[in-house]
Description:
Blueprint: H1 11-42, H2 52-77
Helix pairs in contact: 1-2
Amino acid sequence: MTADSFLPLGQLGWEFILGLGLAFAGGNLWALIRPGYVERRTGKRQPRPPDPRRVTRNVVIGLAVAVIGLIGLIGSLNGS
C-alpha cells in the first residue's frame, strides 16, 4: 500500500466493493427484466417497477461501483 493509492484498501476490501456493485446492478436488472420473463413463462401478469428510469439508473450506479472495485482489485493484485 502506497501513500498515493486511490483508496487504501486491501484485496478483501476491493472484492467487497466489487461484489456490492455487482449485487446492486444484478438485483435491479432482475427487477427490470423479471415481469416480462414471468409473464411469458406463466401467462400471469406481474407488476412492473414504479419508475423504470430509477431502476436503470441504479443498474448504472451498480456497474460503476463494480468497475471501481475491479480496477482497485487489479491494482492491489499488481502491488501498486
